[in-house]
Amino acid sequence: MFKILVVEDDRELNRAVCSYLDQNGYKTVGCLSAGEAYDAMYGGTIFDMIVSDIMMPGIDGFEFAENVREQDQEIPILFMTARDDLTSKQRGFKAGIDDYMVKPINLDELLLRIGALLRRAKIARSHRLEIGKLLLDADERSAYLDGEEISLTVREFNLLYKLLSYPRKTFTRSQLMDEFWDGDTSSGLRTVDVYMTRLRNKFSSCHDFEIVTVHGLGYKAVLR
């Protein structure tokens, strides 16, 4: 069971968030300040994620996130705050947070975001991505479908791993070119189409995902 630390000085909101997450399969610890959160974190409990406010007495959320990041580079941090200005968002992400929600919080949306962040954190820690009968091992740069290795080039593997790490997220051809072609200006954007066709052919027998063309934009992976 995933353990989530909720740091929020509004007692009612803290209680509501913790109660909702507990009802949906998580184990939560609620703290009213960063000081209480430090005590919880360094008292022996290992948390999988942090949900934190910004405006709190004493140490604010920015400083709290920075301090956490000095000790742990991987734990997901989500800010939920009344501050909706771009400067606060920029400062939050520079401090190392992973997501940002503006109050009033929709608890159903919070649950969805937590699930996505925890899934990505698991992928990052294990360097392995499992979807149905498909296994992608980032350390080996290897793909196995139902136990049988599928031969992929490094670029093919990287493209597939990227798409499957963010299912339903659309990546433009330009985004993929910038990340995986290392500034190779001799290749046009249609080169991405060639690689997607190769991946579709190589995984035509895999029924656990589909690479979908988003017309006028690029591609996304859809899990079945």
Automatic annotation (TrEMBL):
Sample GO molecular function, one term: transcription cis-regulatory region binding
Family annotation (SUPFAM superfamilies): CheY-like (SSF52172)
Positions carrying 4-aspartylphosphate: 53
A biological process from GO: regulation of DNA-templated transcription
Cellular component annotations (GO), alphabetically ordered: cytosol; protein-DNA complex
Compartments (UniProt record): Cytoplasm
UniProt DNA-binding region: 126-223
CDD domains per record: trans_reg_C
One Pfam family from the record: Trans_reg_C
Residue stretches making up the Response regulatory domain: 3-118
Record key words, sorted: Activator, Cytoplasm, DNA-binding, Phosphoprotein, Transcription, Transcription regulation, Virulence
Domain OmpR/PhoB-type: 126-223
Function in brief: Member of the two-component regulatory system HssS/HssR involved in intracellular heme homeostasis and tempering of staphylococcal virulence. Phosphorylated HssR binds to a direct repeat sequence within hrtAB promoter and activates the expression of hrtAB, an efflux pump, in response to extracellular heme, hemin, hemoglobin or blood.
Designated name of the protein: Heme response regulator HssR
Source species: Candidatus Eisenbergiella merdipullorum
